[in-house]
């Protein structure tokens, strides 16, 4: 399931940088990549000429003829970097368990959990309820002194 989620995030980021991070609910990175992409398109592409094109193929012809190779490479680099970053984030690299949560953490993604929910609100992994009586019995069995 993690690989499927990583591939979906990568594919969405290739199609539109920032969309893969939105799938992962990493809102800050989604806004950064989308903003970077729109800024680069506005700066490097002839937006006015593209808007006056009569069709999508005409728009792509304008981009092909009026944009130099370095500008096209820069746009593709942003999309590729967003896809790689989204893939690594979906796979859990770097591990985000450094945020020192006081309560329980999810066994799948490692983020902090809301104790009132029966699932992780970050990765939607179903959590098994913890039986507090079973824990109490285990602790009392460990604390009993051994008589010789």
UniProtKB/TrEMBL annotation:
Transmembrane feature ranges: 6-24, 31-51, 71-91
Domain DUF7575: start-end pairs: 101-128
UniProt superkingdom: Archaea
Name of the protein: DUF7575 domain-containing protein
Organism per entry: Natronorubrum sediminis
Any Pfam family: DUF7575
Keywords per UniProt: Membrane, Transmembrane, Transmembrane helix
């Amino acid at each position: 399931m993690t690989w499927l989620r990583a591939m979906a995030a990568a594919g969405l980021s290739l199609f539109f940088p920032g969309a893969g991070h939105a799938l992962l609910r990493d809102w800050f990175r989604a806004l950064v990549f989308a903003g970077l992409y729109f800024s680069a398109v506005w700066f490097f592409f002839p937006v006015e000429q593209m808007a006056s094109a009569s069709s999508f193929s005409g728009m792509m012809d304008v981009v092909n003829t009026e944009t130099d190779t370095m500008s096209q490479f820069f746009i593709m680099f942003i999309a590729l970097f967003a896809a790689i970053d989204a893939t690594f984030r979906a796979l859990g690299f770097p591990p985000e368990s450094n945020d020192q949560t006081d309560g329980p953490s999810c066994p799948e993604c490692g983020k902090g959990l809301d104790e009132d929910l029966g699932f992780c609100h970050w990765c939607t992994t179903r959590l098994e309820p913890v039986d507090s009586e079973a824990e109490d019995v285990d602790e009392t069995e460990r604390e009993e002194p051994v008589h010789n």
